[in-house]
Amino acid sequence: MKKKFLIVYLILLTIIITMTVVLGKYLQELKNNTLYEAENFYFRSDLLSEDIKSYTLQRGVNKIVIHLYNSEDRLRYTKVDINYVVKLEKINDDGNLVKVREENGVLSRSNFTDNEVVFDNLENGKYKVSAIATNPYTKILEGNFVITNNDNRIDYSVGDNVDSTVMFLTIKTVDYTGNIKIKFPDGLYPDNNEEAFKNVNIDNSKEVIVNFKNNSSYSYRFYKENPKKVFNKNEFQVGGV
Q: With pLDDT > 90 as the criterion, what percentage of the chain qualifies?
C-alpha cells in the first residue's frame, strides 16, 4: 500500500515539475515576445516628446501644426495600427488646464505613416498639446505652445492748440500693413507738400487713402481755417480699407 502511494506521489510530483517547467518556458517566451513587440513600437512627433518642450510661435501665427509618426527612422516602423488621441488644452494664468479640442486618429501599419494634426483659429494664450497612443501600447507625447496674434489696431491722435495755425494727425500701427483711409473735417487744409495729399481736391473730397507698413508712425500736417478752433480726435475717421 505504501509502495503504491509512493508511486502515485512520484508520478504527481513529476507531472507538477514538468508543468512548472513548461509554464515557465511559456511565460518567458511570452515576456520576450512582449518585450520584443514593445521595443518595436514607435510613436513619435516632430514637436511633441515625453519630456515636455515649450515653443513660442511667430507673432500672427494662430494655429498649431504637429506631425505624428509610426517610425523611428527609415528602417524601423511599427507593423501594427496605432490608435491615438490628440488633446488641446489651454493653460490658464492659475495653471489649470481647460479642454479646447480633441482629435482621434490611426497611424496605419502600412510602412511609414505621417499624420498631420492641425488646431487653428486659436486665441492668444498658452496651450498644451498631448498626443496619447492608446493601442496597442500606451505612450504620451506632450508640448507647450504660446500663441500671440497680430495686433492690427490702427491708433491715431490729434495734436492741436487754440490760436495755432496748424494741427497734426498722428497715425501708428503695430502689425497692420495696408491702406488706411483718413477722413478729416471742414475747416482743415492738408499740407499738399505731403506725398499723400498732393492730388487731394478738398473741394470735392475730405478724405485720402494712404499706405502703411507695420510698426509705423507718421504725423500729417493740416492748416486751420480758424486758429481759434481746436480740433479733436472724434472729428476724424481713420481706419483700414
A: 66
